[in-house]
Amino acid sequence: MGQKIVVNGQAKQLPKVFRDERELREFLDEVLERALKKEKYAKKFKEGSVTLTVELSDVGIYKQGITSVEFAFEYKNGVYYLKTAYPKKGWAVETYIPGRGGWQ
């Protein structure tokens, strides 16, 4: 969506990958739906919190600038709740590396 963020006092322009929040939500829904059809990802859901990193190539989805997406689920009272989801890897993803210069 191309927001500006401030990193170490410098304003950075993030690449525009999604037109709006709706397109982002549809993308995340599709990635998760396809991932849960695969045993590789579905078997990680047992009682307890789950962090699921989905490689887009594994689920047959292409999104320019993103190669994987991470979903974090919390298990509470017998139900999984999505805590967060975000792009994990790809040229359009900013990465923070502690001890190696910070944001890359």
Mean pLDDT: 81
**Estimated helix fraction:** 10-25%
Cα shape: globular
How far the N terminus sits from the C terminus, by CA atoms, comes to 19 Å
User: What is the count of DSSP helices, taking H or I runs of 4+ residues?
Assistant: 2
In terms of structural class, how would the helical and strand content be classed? alpha+beta
Q: What is the H/E order? A: EEHHEEEEE
Q: How many individual domains?
A: 1
Largest sheet: 3 strands, antiparallel
Strand order of the largest sheet: 3-4-5
Textual characterization of the structure:
With 104 residues, the chain is of the alpha+beta class. The chain is 19% helix and 37% strand. It has a 3-stranded antiparallel beta sheet with strand order 3-4-5. A two-stranded antiparallel ribbon has the order 1-2. It is globular and about 45 Å long. The protein starts with a strand and ends with a strand. The mean pLDDT is 81.
Write the layout of secondary structure elements.
Layout: E1 4-7, E2 10-13, H1 21-36, H2 39-42, E3 50-55, E4 68-76, E5 79-89, E6 96-97, E7 102-103
Antiparallel strand pairs: 1-2, 3-4, 4-5, 6-7
